[in-house]
Amino acid sequence: MVHPSAPTNASPPNDPPAQVTTAASQPERRATFSDVLADREYRGILCAGALSWLGDYLAKAAVTALVFDQTRSAGAAAATFAISFAPWLLLGPLLSAVADRYPYRNVMIVSDVARMVLIALVAVPGLPLPVLIGLLFLTALGNPPYDSARSALLSQVFSGDRLVLGISLNLSLNQTAQIVGYLAGGVLAALSPRLALGLDAATFAVSALVLWTMVAHRPAVNARSTRRNLVRETGDGFAIVFGTAALRGIAVLVFTSMLFAIVPEGLAVVWAHHLEPNGDPAEVGFNQGLIMLASPVGYVLGGLLVGRLIAPETRRRLIRPLALVAALSLVPALADPPLFTVCVMAAVCGFCIAGMMPAANGLFVQALPNQYRARAFGVMQTGVQLLQGASVLVTGMLANHWPLHQVIGLWSVAGVVLILVALSAWPAADLFTAAIERARRLNEAPVAG
After folding, report:
1. What is the CA radius of gyration of the chain?
2. Residue of 176, 150, 161, 170 lying closest to 359 (CA atoms)
3. Residue 93: CB partners within 8 Å, gap ≥ 6?
4. Does 413 or 265 have the greater pLDDT score?
5. What's 11's DSSP letter?
6. Which of 104, 244, 294, 317 is in Cβ range 3.0-4.6 Å of 346 for a Cys bridge?
7. Rounded to whole angstroms, how far apart are CA atoms 345 and 331?
8. For the segment 163-180, what is each residue's pLDDT rounded down to a tens digit?
9. Integer Cα distance of 437 and 420 in angstroms
């Protein structure tokens, strides 16, 4: 699930100062879908992202099937699926720092072209398994700079409530692409995995073309004369996120939420078998699919409904309550509920996470200086990926020794406690105002050569 975009980044230097007062006091006009979709550049970014996401999910299903067909090894298939997360865990912040050195549109286009070539090579018949996995790893290296640059570019195109609604649409489209991609990928994997890989390569090509024709060129936010050692620049990303009270408060809440939000999707196959221990394999598989889809469906609804129907100031006030309800929504697992209730629980959790995330993103954006855009996204996304993977791994191991419904229920109770701790450390309004004002001053300062 949560390709839940971690908080995106800063506002362009010419953003109006009114954006600062928006977060603090003045009511802000609610943006509409027509407002954001009327922007040609945003449509280009949205279309390119949708193509990349759809191709990625198609390829994940296809490559996993291809490797399993060749090896009959569940471990090899699992490793193939997991390899796409490895760059975020190993090199995510460093690759995101690279994205801040160059024009964001160029970073995205180069990433698309490189992934197009590499995924086309994966489709070549007869590749040894180590070569295939190596190519997949190289392909996945394009994800951190692409995602970080897209996040930063979006905040150059929009500000204020249009940015928040644009993020909501992005997140909802991501989840829709996940649903369609996995379903189509499963079908194509049974027919021709290499056809799915060819389609993935084509999506990268079209994405690059869309970006080239629909998104304007902008210079890099960090001039060559201001660059430092890449490792130090990466460290600056961590420093700005965790050294600024407002950003740290948002980061801690987002990271804590990720510890439980992914669990229904990640353990769907185990939960389906738990509900029907002696059931027909086809029925168990269908139940697994329902549990996996429930969270993305809730996510899509939450992103669209909260983003469109609730006023900006109210959305910001709902960040903390929605985070708490998201954790509480999975606690009823302790009662070992039936399939329908499990799906409702997962959907409610996804709805709440999608409802809080864009508003948190928008607040994060306002308090972040321009030059840290991609690096801050890299820090956030790396944390999200790491915590999601760890939560599924730990709860899966616990489920080997205790009933699954107890594991998920108690894990969610622990999540409620952690959310309450994170909320107790939520910064005061004046700290957000100070951080936003500081970012505005830095953003308006002239950039050296």
Report:
1. 21
2. 161
3. 234, 237, 238, 375, 378, 379, 382
4. 413
5. P
6. 294
7. 9
8. 878 877 887 788 788 778
9. 28
pTM for the full predicted model: 0.73
Query: How many whole angstroms from its chain centre is CA 141?
Result: 16
d(CA 288, CA 278): 14
HSE on the CB side for 360, CA within 13 Å? 31
Q: How far apart are CA 180 and CA 169, in angstroms?
A: 16
Domains of the chain: 18-444 (1.20.1250.20)
Q: Are 388 and 258 in contact (CB under 8 A)?
A: yes
Residues 181 and 132: beta-carbon distance below 8 Å: no
Tell me how far apart the alpha carbons of residues 251 and 227 are, in angstroms, rounded to a whole number.
26
State the Cα torsion 274-278-279-285 to the nearest 10°: 50
C-alpha of 192 from chain center:
29
Q: Using one digit for the tens of pLDDT, what is the confidence trace for 140-156? A: 899 889 988 998 898 88
Q: How far apart are CA 303 and CA 169, in angstroms?
A: 7
* DSSP states along 32-43: -HHHHHT-HHHH
- Dist CA 100 CA 368 (whole Å): 14
User: How crowded is residue 230: how many other Cβ atoms within 10 Å of its Cβ?
Assistant: 13
- pLDDT tens for each residue of 46-76: 999 999 888 887 777 777 777 777 776 655 6
End-to-end CA distance of the chain: 41
* Percent of the chain predicted with pLDDT > 90: 26
Q: What is the DSSP string of 213-263?
A: HHS-----SS-GGG---HHHHHHHHHHHHHHSHHHHHHHHHHHHHHHHHTH
Q: Give the Cα separation of 439 and 441 in Å (integer).
A: 5
Nearest to 100 by CA among 242, 224, 247: 224
